[in-house]
Structures are given as structure tokens and as C-alpha cells.
């Protein structure tokens, strides 16, 4: 061996790691120097450096000793951490190539899928963690599934997104199906209901649509706030509701808000939403969050130290979906590093998950499409020069909402509306603000529109 590079290559070849771990964590390392008993290794990415430093230091030392015959200390460096080490610019560029996303690695994807398939983590009552925040919703759904909740018709559950409403709907469906395989149970999102209805009208197959929904033994509709502003779909839901309720069929509805806060819904439909039992689900407290983490880890056959789980439960407070996303990421990271989850791993994952939970930029197209549904004009008309009163109102609202939720400049917004100038966009937003101050119904429509778009 004529150089430290040769020693390092020999050490690398002695490592017993998977091809994926080698590609992600070992190959990016650049050997810098061996000075007496000190090994200096360079990594361009500080995040990769942390992973390697925490998970591979001891095994590197072991193999270096086998090759060199003496113990070494290892220093991992990255840019700006050591003035005595100079890495050529072209080498930095090579080493700083982005690490592949997990979903791009077939090996990890297959391992994660295998882990998930073997976890039995299905949407059932057994996997639903009950706490103070959700015990009423759980009890009501459990009673209905066991045929004891006849007074809860309809059952209306509301909460912020990601707190378990969909899990409960699926749990009801799964348990009822197990007890009564012959039952026709229809579980559908409000958006799917609307899309299927619109398509049935377009293709002249409304009889088929009605047959599907009005012959259900149980109807479970998720996110009913999506019916806001969709008059024809509301009418179809109204008649479906009446027919099923009269026949004694169970209905469960979920939403992100109480019935009275859903704007632009017909009163006759809202009154039916409150006929039965209404329950809410609040954010889980620390103990429930910790129990969720423990249960998910157990089902995925993961061994997570207690202090790591407690750290995650303390930091991830928003919703259950966020917590489950963190556990799945930790499972992937454990596979990649072939190590037990650590506190540093948890800190990195929490940071990533919380960043991902920030609002996703809303596209202009989404806003215009939603406004077109509310005001019953086409997206093309909203973007056009048409000055019809209804079209103009829809256009002004679309401009105002885009300004509120996208962060685009007035000039950029103007380009989305046929090249309208800055002053036109300013006028439209000010006009909407003025009308909102004077007309409470108009204000409620605009505010509800912004809230709906924020939840998409």
C-alpha cells in the first residue's frame, strides 16, 4: 500500500454493509490524510457527515486497526471545518451530488413495502390509539360497527386534518364487513362523490350512480365540507341521505369543521347533518402521541429507545399523520444505516417532517378551478376579458384569493389573467376587501374558499 487512499479503499472493501448503505453513506467519503494515529475523512454534505459519524465511526476504527495494527482516532470534516485541509473544487462538486430519494431506490422501496405489509397496521379499531382527544368519536364508531348505535344517525365527526377521522371510517367498514359480509358498505370521499355525480350527468348514467349510493346498507362520507358551493351535488346528497335514513340505514359523515361553519351549503342539508350525534376530535396530548409512536414501532418491528420516542412525541404535536410519517422515515433510515434509531436520527427526521408539513404552495389553477365551482363560471371565462357581472365577481375573488394564499406578486398574478397590469390587480383585491367589510355572506364565502384551498 503506497498511500492513505489505498488504506482507505481496503478499509471500505472490508465493510459488511448493503449496497444501498455503501452507495448512500460510504462512497461519498473522501480520504484526506493519516497523521500519526489520526484519520481525517471529508464529506461534502453535513447531513451525511452526521449519519456516518454516528453510525460508522466504531466500525471504521475496528477495520483501520486490523489494517494498520494500531488504534486510530477519526475526524470527519466538511467545508469550513478545518483550515488545514484543502479539497479541490472539482472534487467537492463530485462529492456534493444529491443523494437519491428513498423512493428512487428499488431495494429500500421493497424493504419498506415488506415491512409495511408485515406490520398488520391496517385501519382497524385495534390500531386506533384512544386518548382523551378522541374517545367519544371512537366509542360512537365502535357502537355503530357492533350494531348498537342506532341513535347516532347520522354520526358527524369533525376535526383538523390528520387526526384519525378517515381511520375511524375505515375501521367501521372493516369491522362491519367482518361481521356482515353481505352488507353493501359504501365509503367515499366527498370529492369522489361529486366527481362521480358530475361524470354520471355527463355520460347520462345517473341511474347507475343512484343505484350505487341509494342501495347502500351503510354510507360513510369523508370531508363533507367539499360539498360547499356545489349545488347539484348537494341536491343529490340530500335525496340520497333521505332515502337511506328513512330506510334505517346508517350514515357517518366527517368534516374539518362543525356543521354551522360550512358555508354555501343548503339549510335543508345542514339540518340533516345535525339530526344524530356530533363529536369532535382534538389534537392528541403527549401520552396519546407517545402511545401512537410505540404502537406503530411495535407493528413495524422497530426497536426505538424510550428517550427517542419521548423526544418525537414532544416535538410532533400537530397530528397523527405527521407522527406516522416520522416513524416511516425512521424505519427507512434504520434500514439505510443498518442501525438502531438514535436521538440524532430522530432530530433530523423531526426537522424534515415538520418542514414537509408546512403549507404546500397553492397553484393558481387550483384557485381558479375552485372559484369557478363556487360562482358557476368556467375557468376560461375567469381568465378572459368577459365583463359579465358574475364573471367579473368570480375573477376579482380569484385574484384576491391568489394574492392571499400563493405569495405571488401583483405583476405575476396579472400575467395569469391575460396580462392584466399591476393596477388592475390592486383594484380587484381592494374591491373584494371592501365588499367583505359590508357583506357578511360574501365575506364568509371568500374565507371558506381560502380555508378549503388551504386543506387541498
What would you say the CATH architecture of the largest domain is? 3-Layer(aba) Sandwich
Task: Enumerate the spans where pLDDT stays under 50 for 5 or more consecutive residues.
Answer: 88-105
* Helix/strand class: alpha/beta
N-to-C order of helices and strands: HHEEHEHHHEHEHHEHEHEHHHHHHHHHH
| Residue share in β-strands | 5-15%
Categorize the overall geometry: globular
Radius of gyration: 28 Å
Query: Superfamily at the CATH H level of the largest domain?
Result: P-loop containing nucleotide triphosphate hydrolases
Mean pLDDT: 83
Give the key terms.
Rossmann fold; 5-stranded parallel sheet; 3 domains; GMP Synthetase, Chain A, domain 3; 456 residues; alpha/beta; Chromosomal Replication Initiator Protein Dnaa, Chain: A; 21 helices
Task: Describe the secondary-structure layout.
Elements (H helix, E strand, L loop, with lengths): L3 H11 L4 H8 L3 E6 L2 E5 L3 H23 L4 E5 L11 H7 L10 H12 L17 H11 L9 E4 L6 H15 L5 E5 H13 L3 H9 L3 E5 L8 H16 L3 E6 L11 H7 L3 E4 L5 H14 L6 H10 L4 H18 L5 H14 L7 H12 L3 H5 L5 H18 L3 H7 L5 H17 L1 H15 L2
Helix pairs in contact: 1-3, 6-7, 8-9, 12-13, 12-14, 13-15, 14-15, 16-18, 18-20, 18-21, 19-20, 20-21
How is this structure best summarized?
By secondary structure, the chain is α/β, with parallel strands linked by helices. 57% of the residues lie in helices and 9% in strands. It has helices spanning 4-14, 19-26, 46-68, 89-95, 106-117, 135-145, 165-179, 190-202, 206-214, 231-246, 267-273, 286-299, 306-315, 320-337, 343-356, 364-375, 379-383, 389-406, 410-416, 422-438, 440-454, and strands spanning 30-35, 38-42, 73-77, 155-158, 185-189, 218-222, 250-255, 277-280.
Amino acid at each position: 500500500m503506497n498511500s492513505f487512499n489505498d488504506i482507505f479503499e481496503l478499509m471500505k472493501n472490508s465493510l459488511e454493509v448493503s449496497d444501498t448503505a455503501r452507495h448512500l453513506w460510504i462512497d461519498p467519503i473522501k480520504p484526506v490524510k493519516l497523521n500519526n494515529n489520526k484519520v481525517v475523512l471529508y464529506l461534502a454534505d453535513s447531513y451525511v457527515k452526521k449519519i456516518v459519524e454516528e453510525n460508522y465511526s466504531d466500525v471504521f476504527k475496528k477495520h483501520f486497526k486490523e489494517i494498520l495494527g494500531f488504534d486510530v482516532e477519526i475526524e470527519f470534516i466538511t467545508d469550513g471545518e478545518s483550515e488545514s485541509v484543502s479539497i479541490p473544487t472539482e472534487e467537492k462538486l463530485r462529492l456534493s451530488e444529491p443523494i437519491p430519494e428513498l423512493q428512487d431506490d428499488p431495494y429500500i422501496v421493497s424493504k419498506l413495502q415488506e415491512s409495511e405489509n408485515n406490520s398488520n397496521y391496517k385501519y382497524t379499531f385495534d390500531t386506533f390509539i384512544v386518548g382523551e382527544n378522541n374517545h367519544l368519536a371512537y366509542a360512537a364508531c365502535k357502537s355503530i360497527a357492533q350494531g348498537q348505535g342506532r341513535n347516532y344517525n347520522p354520526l358527524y365527526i369533525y376535526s383538523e386534518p390528520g387526526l384519525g377521522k378517515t381511520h375511524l371510517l375505515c375501521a367501521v367498514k372493516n369491522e362491519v364487513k367482518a361481521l356482515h359480509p353481505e352488507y353493501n358498505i359504501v365509503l367515499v370521499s366527498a370529492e369522489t362523490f361529486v366527481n362521480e355525480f358530475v361524470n354520471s350527468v355527463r355520460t347520462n348514467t345517473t341511474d347507475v350512480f343512484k343505484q350505487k349510493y341509494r342501495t347502500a346498507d351503510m354510507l360513510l362520507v369523508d370531508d363533507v365540507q367539499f360539498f360547499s358551493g356545489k349545488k347539484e351535488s348537494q341536491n343529490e346528497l340530500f335525496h340520497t341521505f333521505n332515502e337511506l335514513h328513512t330506510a334505517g340505514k346508517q350514515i357517518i359523515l366527517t368534516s374539518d369543521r362543525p356543521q354551522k361553519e360550512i358555508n354555501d351549503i343548503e339549510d335543508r342539508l345542514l339540518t340533516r347533518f345535525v339530526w344524530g350525534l356530533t363529536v369532535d376530535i382534538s389534537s392528541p396530548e403527549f401520552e396519546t402521541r407517545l402511545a401512537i409512536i410505540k404502537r406503530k414501532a411495535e407493528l413495524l418491528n422497530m426497536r426505538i429507545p424510550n428517550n427517542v420516542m419521548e423526544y418525537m412525541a414532544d416535538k410532533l404535536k400537530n397530528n397523527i399523520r405527521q407522527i406516522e410519517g416520522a416513524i416511516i422515515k425512521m424505519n427507512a433510515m434504520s434500514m439505510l444505516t443498518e442501525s438502531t434509531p438514535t436521538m440524532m436520527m430522530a432530530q433530523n427526521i423531526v426537522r424534515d417532517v415538520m418542514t414537509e408539513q408546512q403549507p404546500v404552495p397553492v397553484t393558481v389553477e387550483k384557485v381558479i378551478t375552485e372559484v369557478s365551482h363556487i360562482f358557476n363560471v368556467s375557468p376560461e371565462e375567469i381568465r378572459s376579458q368577459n365583463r359579465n357581472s358574475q364573471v367579473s365577481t368570480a375573477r376579482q375573488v380569484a385574484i384576491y384569493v391568489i394574492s392571499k394564499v400563493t405569495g405571488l406578486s401583483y405583476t405575476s398574478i396579472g400575467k395569469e389573467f391575460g396580462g392584466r397590469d399591476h393596477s388592475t390587480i390592486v383594484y380587484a383585491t381592494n374591491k373584494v376587501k371592501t365588499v367583505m367589510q359590508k357583506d357578511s355572506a360574501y365575506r364568509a364565502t371568500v374565507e371558506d374558499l381560502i380555508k378549503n384551498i388551504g386543506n387541498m
